[in-house]
């Protein structure tokens, strides 16, 4: 076994690898960018080395620098994690050339599966069923369009070197093809350095089922059950579970054996995942093979009782597989929910900012949190916005789902938008509980997954007032005379009572409260109604009784701003200060950046007439492209940013005049 390894990654997966390596007595070397100098993985490692500036191209993708550090510090092996260089053939080969063990498959196996089109050919030769489509080397746009017509619509454009939903587009008709191809190629080139595409028939109700495989250098291979990853947004997984519900033993065995056969056909060594599309009629089709450890590997660990990172380390050190196929057993059911900094109510656009407040569920044999951040850390525009992975396990699917909903209710984050509420709605949705799964699940069940806020605004305003009052009192020194009325902090007045005014702003509406403080609580007037309220605040926990109804909520206060949290729901308000959004500073004809990011394409110029729906600007954030489209017909009057420039959330990108207004101006 190795005595020292380098982890060529960051965040949650770097912390995950360090945890197992330390348990095995292996020293760990971390690498980091300037943006990650105070990151959790840096603090956990035994030593750490600076790679370079924040952009991944200047840091985590610097294979030459990483090899140089590994040689200098005496690391015997490199674990690539997932993403970045984990499926980079050149990096795996460089490790081998420099006498460093690559904790992953040989470079030849990565190359064989790194091109989706080449992988399809290998699977075809191995007898694994394939979805109809085009996987050829000729990438001229005219030929691709011709092949698209042969394949039929809807179809899927996929980057041959892609993964994680990047460089992928669903195309519904021939008229959409040209723009979708250009966008997918551009995104693929930016993310992987390779713009080549493959075309596949888009199955309308498929499930995404994948098999975890392991092979050793002695030629042995096993599969460790399967995972269902059907629930996705923008072709990226949101929630995963193992085992996949509703699969027959015969299908599970057929998929597993096909996956091992595929891996052994390319002399695979280490951890890999073979992904299949599983159709409603029970048929399955090879989709791709990921030649690395998957983000969702913990659900497999929970149902098998195996540490897959330990397996990786042992196999990379030349040891045989820890188990043979007949020794692999499955126990219970597990779910993994990916906690992201993103805005589900705005098409899941990624969010950035500081994790000002962070409380996670209590970990146990049933609940696990894999994360690379702590309270106060920054979610940067430069990297994937995943905050953590929440993994739960129980004896069966129903109980595991109940644990997932409870744990998501206990997950509280302030200072940044997240998908926690959305995930809890998903866990509670009846179709999901009934395992009615397919990759279009989210679009199909919008009403269930994006319901109106469940917190009562009136009650929340009362609780917010109590939180502000109680937190202010907690910050005051106790009176020297406990019997003095002046030390009672109740707005006491001699021979009179005083109702304190308070203004709270929620959304765009201001609410006026009148609060009469008493020894046992408050008499609060709000919107013409009176309430008897008592409250105690212990840290971030507010216990409140409103007209005899007792409840507990949690709060995060940032100066005059307050966020109340209860079972995944949030209520935000502000004390005294009016709030203004970006829209208040812009006219109807402006288009603003929906998130922090970079401008990768400007498709219009001043004076150009555009139609509603036309793409004006293309932005990139978290390695994903987002098109800014015209909300109406009009004429571009100004373009404020050029390609390659960074923009902030809310920044005005383009000014668009209505055509009628422009004609009126010309006439005058």
Automatic annotation (TrEMBL):
Lipoyl-binding domain residues:
577-657
Keywords from UniProt, A to Z, are: ATP-binding, Biotin, Ligase, Nucleotide-binding
Q: Does the keyword ATP-binding apply?
A: yes
| Cofactor(s) listed | biotin
Report the Pfam families cross-referenced here: Biotin_carb_C, Biotin_carb_N, Biotin_lipoyl, BT_MCC_alpha, CPSase_L_D2
The cross-references to PROSITE patterns, in alphabetical order and at most eight, read: ATP_GRASP (PS50975), BC (PS50979), BIOTIN (PS00188), BIOTINYL_LIPOYL (PS50968), CPSASE_2 (PS00867)
Q: ATP-grasp domain: from which residue to which, for each copy?
A: 120-317
InterPro entries in alphabetical order: ATP-grasp (IPR011761), ATP_grasp_subdomain_1 (IPR013815), BC-like_N (IPR005481), Biotin_BS (IPR001882), Biotin_carboxylase_complex (IPR050856), Biotin_carboxylation_dom (IPR011764), Biotin_COase_C (IPR005482), Biotin_lipoyl (IPR000089)
Q: Which residues form the Biotin carboxylation domain?
A: 1-447
Indicate yes or no for the key word Nucleotide-binding: yes
Protein's name in the database: Acetyl/propionyl/methylcrotonyl-CoA carboxylase subunit alpha
User: What organism is this sequence from?
Assistant: Marinobacterium rhizophilum
Phylogenetic placement of the source organism:
Bacteria, Pseudomonadati, Pseudomonadota, Gammaproteobacteria, Oceanospirillales
């Amino acid at each position: 076994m190795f005595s020292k390894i380098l982890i060529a990654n960051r965040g949650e997966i770097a912390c995950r690898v360090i945890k197992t390596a330390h348990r095995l007595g292996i020293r760990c070397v971390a690498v980091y960018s300037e943006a990650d100098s105070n990151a959790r993985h840096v603090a956990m490692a035994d030593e750490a080395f600076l790679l370079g500036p924040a952009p991944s191209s200047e840091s985590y993708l610097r294979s030459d620098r990483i090899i140089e550090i590994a040689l200098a510090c005496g690391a015997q092996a490199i674990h690539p994690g997932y993403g970045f260089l984990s499926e980079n053939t050149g990096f795996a080969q460089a490790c081998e050339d420099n006498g460093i063990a690559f904790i992953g498959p040989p470079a030849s196996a990565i190359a064989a599966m790194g091109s989706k089109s080449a992988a399809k050919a290998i699977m075809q030769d191995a007898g694994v069923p394939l979805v109809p489509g085009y996987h050829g080397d000729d990438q001229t746009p005219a030929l691709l369009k011709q092949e698209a017509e042969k394949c039929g619509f809807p179809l899927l454009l996929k980057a041959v070197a892609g993964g994680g939903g990047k460089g992928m587009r669903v195309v519904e008709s021939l008229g959409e093809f040209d723009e979708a191809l250009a966008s997918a190629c551009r995104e693929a080139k930016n993310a992987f350095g390779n713009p080549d595409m493959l075309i596949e028939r888009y199955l309308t109700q498929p499930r995404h089922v994948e098999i975890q495989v392991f092979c050793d250098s002695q030629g042995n291979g096993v599969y460790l059950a399967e995972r269902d990853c059907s629930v996705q947004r923008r072709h990226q997984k949101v929630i995963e579970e193992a085992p996949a519900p509703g699969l027959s033993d015969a299908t599970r065995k057929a998929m597993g054996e096909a996956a091992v056969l595929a891996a052994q056909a390319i002399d695979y060594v280490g951890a890999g995942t073979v992904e299949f599309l599983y159709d409603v009629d029970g048929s399955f089709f090879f989709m791709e093979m990921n030649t690395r450890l998957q983000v969702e590997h913990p659900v497999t660990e929970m149902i098998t009782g195996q540490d897959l990172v330990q397996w990786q380390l042992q196999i990379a050190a030349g040891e045989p597989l820890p188990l043979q196929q007949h020794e692999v057993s499955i126990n219970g059911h597990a779910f993994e929910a990916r906690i992201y900094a993103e805005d589900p109510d705005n098409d899941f656009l990624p969010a950035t900012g500081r994790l000002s407040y962070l409380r996670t569920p209590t970990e146990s044999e049933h609940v696990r949190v894999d994360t690379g951040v702590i309270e106060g850390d920054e979610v940067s525009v430069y990297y994937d916005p995943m905050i953590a992975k929440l993994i739960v396990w129980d004896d069966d699917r129903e109980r595991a789902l109940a644990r997932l909903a409870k744990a998501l209710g206990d997950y509280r984050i302030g200072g940044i938008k997240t998908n926690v509420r959305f995930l809890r709605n998903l866990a509670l949705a009846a179709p999901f509980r009934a395992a009615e799964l397919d990759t279009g699940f989210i679009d199909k069940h919008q009403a269930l997954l994006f319901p109106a806020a469940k917190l009562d605004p009136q009650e929340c305003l009362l609780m917010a007032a109590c939180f502000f009052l109680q937190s202010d009192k907690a910050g005051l020194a106790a009176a020297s005379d406990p019997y003095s009325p002046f030390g009672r902090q109740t707005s006491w007045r001699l021979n009179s009572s005083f109702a304190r005014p308070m203004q709270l702003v929620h959304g765009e509406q201001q609410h006026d409260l009148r609060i009469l403080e008493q020894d046992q609580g408050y008499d609060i007037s709000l919107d013409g109604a009176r309430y008897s309220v008592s409250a105690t605040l212990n840290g971030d926990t507010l216990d409140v009784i409103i007209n005899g109804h007792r409840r507990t909520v949690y709060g995060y206060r940032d100066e005059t701003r307050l966020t109340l949290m209860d079972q995944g729901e949030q209520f935000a308000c502000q004390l005294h200060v009016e709030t203004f959004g970006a829209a208040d500073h812009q006219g109807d004809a402006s288009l603003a950046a929906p998130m922090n990011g970079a401008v990768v394409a400007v498709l219009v110029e001043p004076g150009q007439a555009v139609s509603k729906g036309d793409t004006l600007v293309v932005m990139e954030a978290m390695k994903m492209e987002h098109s800014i489209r015209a909300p109406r017909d009009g004429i571009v009057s100004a373009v404020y940013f050029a390609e390659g420039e960074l923009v902030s959330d809310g920044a005005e990108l383009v000014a668009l005049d209505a055509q009628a207004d422009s004609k009126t101006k010309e006439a005058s």
